Amino acid sequence: MFSRVQVPQISNLTSTLLPPLSEEVIRPYEYTDGHWLHHDLVQCQARHVQFNFNALCERIIELSPQAQRIVRCDKKEGGFNRVFVFSLDNGERLVARIPFSIAGPARYTTSSEVATMEYFRAKTTIPIPRILDWSNDKSRIGSEYIIMEHAQGTQLHTIWPRMNTHQHMLCIKALAKVIQQMTQLEFSAYGSIYFANNSLAFTQKVGLGEDFCIGPHIGIRFWDCDPLSPWSYNRKSPNQGPWSNIEEYTSALVDAGVAQVPDNPHAGADELPYHGSVSEHLRLLEICRSILTNQLSKAPQVINSSIPTLYHPDLHARNIFVSEEDPSQITAIIDWQSTSIEPVFSYAKEEPDMIDSSVRDAQRAGFIPNMFEEMENAESKAKQEKDLEICQKTFAVGLRAWSPALFSAKISDENYFRLLRFVPNTWSMGAAAIRQELLELTRRWKGLGLPGECAYQPSEEELVKHKKEYEDFEVHQRLKLWLQDSLGSNGDGWRPAEAFEAAEEAHKAAFEQWMRSNREELRYGNEEATEERARKLWPWDGNGKLE
After folding, report:
1. CA–CA dist 191, 245 (Å, integer)
2. Are 275 and 311 in the same domain?
3. Which domain holds residue 328?
4. Alpha helices in 320-403 (DSSP H)
5. In principle, which of 21, 248, 316, 502 could form an S-S bond with 243, CB 3.0–4.6 Å?
């Protein structure tokens, strides 16, 4: 049972126009936006946060001296935070952010987010909401938190459909100028920003002026924070940085992959062969370490794209606020959690969702919320595509002129960097996936202008074995993509609460269809089409039901 917390008397939180502000209405501790078709119970528990809602409300009132009561509280669920927007009787709105455990170590993530926002405020003119209060421990309200002013203006995704092409172009140009300010900052190490006088117990840090420093990287790929995949440091000590060069950084990515391989040597034995044994994962990861630290990191193309860069990790329309009167004017950028100093190539694939063709296609198909719907009702598809093309060109021209290192990384051959994106997740993806990346890199080695010979040189026996295993991996991936497209979900099977019941029924039907198809194959002589294999290939909860 969740503990019940009474709202403080000082707030007098009732209104003739609004329901009483109470735990029953707000449900401040639970995740309520949706459910998952895969490991739903674990996912919801990972987003449950127990804290003192009473104390948070009191702190909100204290931070707005002219306010007497809270007249409204809206709860918004983010990917890694729970956000409360408090409207006060003096017209002011304050925002409180409570981190989920899946966001990483809350003391570090909270400390770094606050320091990063203050660093940008000190070094740039990027509009960022002012922080009013924060805590990186649980002593005040039972959880780490950040309280800040509400962003000025309106969220870009709500007004984008009503903007014309010229306004779109000017807005994208303004965003490119924001990115210019980020990419012009210079750093001597990779990691995350903290205040120089922070109270955290990390021993390694790199100075960054009098007030700030670079400390451990708070990105989730470097921390044991996934409830579905516990880590072990028995083979390698934790390696979260900071790192002074690209060789150290790439080695840390491999260390993260090693930490996710279970200690039990028989782990994965009940999976299909493409998943790979513990020993096979460790062997492939050490090959990756040799390639990344001794070969790829020495290549001029990688060196030139390794400039330490501080960049917002999610520059999408929901995190950008603009002026209602002139939507080409950016009034605020929000959600700076996980912003870290990375090699610039780490951001090469990042695109604002307003100009990302794949995002727009997914929104049209109904797979994710569609901010283009009003445009589609009012304009022809040809006009929309022209608008998209103009915005994409505007963004590219802006990056080339104002952020040349980022632009250069974007147009570089991604085969230099693909291995870096796979190594931290080999255990969850399967050995066949990382082996395929190694094979592709070996095949392209000379064409990429890399010296010598790739450290991965598979035997004929390994190639034959890999071919069969990779076929199973591809079947698994195609099934997953088919389910995402059919059910309009993300890769974890998430659907909003109001659409979940229908998605659950469709998922059950899809699973039954898959099993019938498999039985037909077995009946017609495919001896590999066993029920056990079919269930293991199914990407989500194998019985087609919630846990």
Report:
1. 11
2. no
3. 156-184+307-411
4. 357-364, 373-378, 381-402
5. 248
